Description:
The structure holds three protein chains of three kinds. In chain A, helix 5 (about 65-85) runs parallel beside helix 11, helix 7 (about 135-155) packs across helix 8 and helix 7 runs parallel beside helix 11 (about 200-235). Chain A has one domain. By secondary structure, chain A is mainly alpha-helical. Helices cover about 75% and strands about 0% of the residues of chain A. Chain A contains eleven helices and no strands. The relative contact order of chain A is 0.14. By secondary structure, chain B is mainly α. Helix content of chain B is about 80%, strand content about 0%. Chain B has a two-stranded antiparallel ribbon. The longest helix of chain B has about 30 residues, at about 155-185. The two termini of chain B are about 35 Å apart. Chain C is mostly helical. Chain C contains four helices and no strands. Chains in contact: A-B, A-C, B-C. The interface of B and C includes residues 146, 150 and 165 of B.
Amino acid sequence: MRSGLALLVVVLLAGLMMAGVSQLPPPGAPDSAVHGHVAATYIDGGAEAGGAPNLVTAVLLNYRAFDTYGEVVVIFAALIAVLAVGLAGRPIRSPRQAPTVPVSPVVDQVVRLLAPFIALFALFMILEGHVLPGGGFQGGVVLGTLIILLGLVLSPRRLRHLLPHKAVFWIRSAAVLTFACTALTGLALTGWLFALPEPHWLGESVIVGLELAIGIGSAFAVAGFFLSLEADRHR
Amino acid sequence: MHLLPLTALLPITAGALAPALFYRRPDACWWWALAAMLANLIAVSILWFELHTGTTIRYPLGGWPAPYGIELVFDGVAALMLVLAALSVAIMIASRRYINATIPKGRRSLAYALVLINLGGMNGFVAAADLFNLFVFMEIFSITAYALVALARGPVAALAALKYLLVGAVSSLLVLLAVALLYAQTGSLNMADIAARLAAADAPGASALALGCLVVGFLVKAAIFPLHFWLPDAHASAPSPVSALLSGLVVKMGVVGLVRTRILFVEADVVPVVLLDQLLVWLGAIAVLAGAVLALVQRELKLMLAYSTVANMGYIAVGLGLATSAAVGGALAHTVYHAVIKTGLFLTAGSILLCTGLSRVDDLRGLGQRMPLTCGALVLGLLAATGIPTTAGFVGKWQIAVGALEAGQPWVVGVILAGSLLTLSWAIRVINSLFFRPPARARVIIADEAPASLLIPSVVLALLAIAGGLGGAVLLELVEPLTTRIVGQPS
Amino acid sequence: MVILFAVGLYIVLTKQNLLKKIIGLNIMETAVFGLIVTSGMVTGGSPPLLGQGLEPPYASPIAHALVLTGIVVALSVTALALVLILRVQSECGSIELDDLLEREE
Lengths: 235, 491, 105
């Protein structure tokens, strides 16, 4: 009964949406509004105005840098939220340790073998993100996955001992803080917050720095989500 | 001028630094958070004075002029930031004891970080002139709000936070869908630019769909009647300062969203907004009655206050929907005053809860003798909420009623009156129980007056709520330029 | 896209398992991202990478940037939702909504 009603509502809404969406310009037409107005200006401006040959990066870190700042803040806020509301830090319910499944030696060896390559690939994606496809977030997620893999193989506890507790919080907030710093640098050098400084090489190095900070920030956020979930599961 | 983006940057950066700097010293973190909020208040005050000496402040971020870059704008809508800044300072002062009492030491700095980021998100949201930027900052304050609800212990809080998250995420998604639809039609994301180019796209169906998505999305955020179901649990089970933050400030963001949407579509003039207005009036009227009735049957003080928020958001919706200048002015005034009243009420209820550990109204009998100042503040706040003349609640309701008569819908006046009477009846029940009944619980008899850090914000806000009606004319004058923009040209 | 969105909404509305609701939410998100990306594409276009010997017309870079931001936001919300589900599970002993509602009464 309830699901039938929901089905009816959903079909009705879908019909309304179909009617609306069908009026949009057909996808793929090169002369639609999406390509004409703002996007055309960006493409005409090219790498010179955008600060990076990869225009997606130019949009993310130059034209619409404030959005990306917001995005970095969202992921940081989510990490803080996960840490604040999760169960970690509460007394363990059962007196004995949660059972640990031994890692198969095959998995162990393969992960150890692959780890440097994955790290290299992630760094490549982060550092070359302003020229080629890739970028801070994508590379950061790859790096974060690597940390998760290592956490599975080495056990989260050992991973935690690799870094002092205090440093972890600094690294987690790295992306947000770096963004704030570059925003202020932009203000000092060009007169506008979030502007890329002139000359071109300086702007480009700022972009690379930002990508690196975003990459590290999102890697630690992704890893943080997982490790906190993993820790919660045993409580 | 550079202060405008700083209003978002400053609290967020302070929030990002908080766990790193103060992880082991949460007591110092409170000072840090308070300092950040005071700095924010100063920045916003300076902006406010600039707004009233000159024209609207526009800030193109990165020096890219709109529509090529993101623009922030400090106009009448964004002036709400001043209310946000001032009330958040009051909340921060009161929250210290609460956080120390309820949150384990290692997590207090995280809680302060969440509050700061939440404030920064709201600042960015009200100042956003770019549709996608609006979405991003909406997510910032939403995600921190979900987490803040879940800071409270116990199964109810976790479930309420999850419910809030699910509903909130769907509504955010609808807003994103609307962004996609408008972007596909115009190739632009700046709201003024979209409004100018929407007519050329010649797709009224898609525009109407975008309007519908935006409205439903923001109705959820504003907790207007049929989409209010997440609110009472979330607001009542959250830690009390968080309830004050959510009920006083965060739900108002939905109103800001509705106002921005309305301005966009009035300027674009492709879809008639009359239907939207009628919808708002009806839903608002139902919300006023339903919220008041549901508040009447509750037993817990905080749940009563939460349902009263539903009713008050109904008043605001009615005022916006009537779309005459008096009613819209009333709705805006009520947005500000309800923020003051409800923040004060939740803070006061929180300090009662903290000092006695009791939350049911029946258990609080006779508390007026033991905590006269706190209970007095609660009474003043409740009287203001009912809208007795010269209190803050009166201005908005009166203006909305006048607007209803202007718009030729006299039945709305009856609804407003009925809502006020219902509110009065549950307020009297609370007052009666606090002052005119013998104590029923031992904890009431041994209760002491709340400490100064809890008492001062409650009393100040209660006095503001009572005296606010006297400043009503000034406030209405302040919102007037915005009112004309929302109403638009009669067509 | 509309169908995908509708499927997601149906799941969110009807499934009693909280985890399935989150999955439904993610399906809806995917639908919206798909809509944005398709609106930014050009038939026969190339990715907006300058200086790589690619020919215009280029696909709209803005759409890609928007989706990237959207995905990150969706990821964050999902992570928080999962943690909350774990907390509900450990405090109420169930993540089936009807179970939870029954217990409340």
